[in-house]
Design a protein that fits this description.
InterPro entries: Dihydropteroate_synth-like_sf, IspG_bac, IspG_bac-typ, IspG_C, IspG_TIM, NO2/SO3_Rdtase_4Fe4S_sf. Converts 2C-methyl-D-erythritol 2,4-cyclodiphosphate (ME-2,4cPP) into 1-hydroxy-2-methyl-2-(E)-butenyl 4-diphosphate. This protein is α/β, with parallel strands linked by helices and 367 residues long. It has 13 helices and 15 strands. The strands form three sheets. It has an eight-stranded parallel sheet. The protein is elongated. The protein binds iron/sulfur cluster.
Length: 367
């Protein structure tokens, strides 16, 4: 038996300059935060607040709302007053909305100084208003909106082009003495996101917001984001994340929280360890795992529940979990904290697991 290799030491966290976004610290040694964007019309205050409440309950730390119209800008005071988490206004072309967002109590504003300069050179005024209100600005670039001059020079939205664009945008504010800046460089290719953020991390001290933009539908987008964020965060790079999916914001937040939990950067919630199934299956494991997942939706205690399809690996995994079932011959052997406590017919497995979970939760009420 060869000696076990010790795990490699974790990479030290990159020490970015810390910002305060409302009551959430970003950068430095602050926990990595999860963001998403609302998909409602921002001007529809009730619908927007409802969506913010849903994502907050799922673990979202900071919410961004798009502000493309005057009605959206006018709705910001009502939203910031009632939102349970800090609100970032996302503004592209209209400098006047930036001032409205700051006055409305937005905790930060996402701006594109390159765009604003094209239309109305008010970068200095924005820097002053943000500094006076102590409101950080998020800047940066998406591959799809890269400055045409940089695109022509680099031939494509390469990592170097994205970083050059972001640092140029930062310099527009730095010229006016403003440096409460967070940067995001986004691309649909996770490997370009990794390369760009590594480069950016080596060239500035600003906190970095990670995102694989236009990542795709839920499965594809979650995988792409997990790959990029997993690499970068394990290297200590990244201060906030957003999983951009063609799916509701709630799914984006759940995916972001899962990624952080897998990396040990956020406490785990309830976890289901279920086997993939193989030719030895003695139960419809996919159906059983789905039923267990549905039964435990929203269960607040961070239990690990093993749902296993046969006796090859079943007892081992079920014993190692807080709660588990090893299935076989129309029955399920129920394990609690490593011990077999019952064998029940297949139809009773889910209910029995739920009963035992509630009992465990009562015995140790601290989730
Ligand atoms: Fe196959 Fe059994 Fe392993 Fe499930 S637990 S994958 S059924 S060997």
């Amino acid at each position: 038996q060869p000696p076990a290799m010790p795990p490699p030491p974790p990479e030290p966290r990159r020490r970015s300059r810390q910002l305060r976004i409302g009551n959430v610290l970003v950068g430095g040694d602050a926990p990595v935060s999860v963001q998403t964007m609302t998909t409602t019309n921002t001007a529809d205050v009730d619908a927007t607040l409802q969506q913010i409440a849903e994502v907050t309950a799922a673990g979202c730390d900071i919410i961004r709302v798009a502000v493309p119209t005057a009605d959206d800008a006018a709705a910001l005071p009502a939203i910031t007053a009632r939102s349970p988490i800090p609100v970032i206004a996302d503004i592209h072309f209209q400098p006047r909305y930036v001032f409205q967002a700051i006055d409305a109590g937005c905790a930060a504003v996402r701006v594109n100084p390159g765009n604003i300069r094209k239309f109305d050179d008010r970068v200095e005024d924005i820097a002053k208003a943000a500094a006076d209100a102590r409101v950080p600005l998020r800047i940066g670039v998406n591959a799809g909106s890269l400055d045409p001059r940089l695109l022509a020079r680099h031939g494509a939205a390469t990592a170097e082009a994205l970083v050059e664009s972001a640092l140029w945008e930062a310099s527009l504010f730095e010229e006016h003495g403003f440096s409460d800046i967070k940067i995001a460089v986004k691309h649909h290719d996770p490997l370009v996101v990794v390369a760009a953020n590594r480069l950016l991390a080596s060239r500035c001290v600003y906190p970095l917001h990670l995102g694989v933009t236009e990542a795709g539908p839920t499965l594809q987008g979650s995988v792409k984001s997990a790959v990029a964020f997993g690499i970068l965060l394990s290297e200590g790079i990244g201060d906030t994340i957003r999983v951009s999916l063609s799916a509701p914001p709630l799914e984006q937040v759940k995916a972001g929280c899962h990624i952080l939990a897998c990396l040990g950067l956020r406490p785990r919630k309830l976890e289901i360890v279920s086997c993939p199934g193989c030719g030895r299956l003695q139960v419809d494991i996919h159906k059983l795992a789905t039923r267990v997942e549905a039964a435990f939706g929203g269960f607040p205690h961070p239990l690990r529940i093993a749902v296993m399809g046969c006796v090859v690996n079943g007892p081992g995994e079920a014993r190692a979990a807080d709660l588990g079932v090893s299935s076989g011959n129309g029955k399920g052997q129920i394990f609690v904290k490593g011990k077999v406590i019952a064998t029940v017919p297949e139809a009773q497995i889910v209910n029995r697991l739920l009963e035992e979970a509630l009992r465990l939760a009562q015995e140790d009420p601290t989730p």
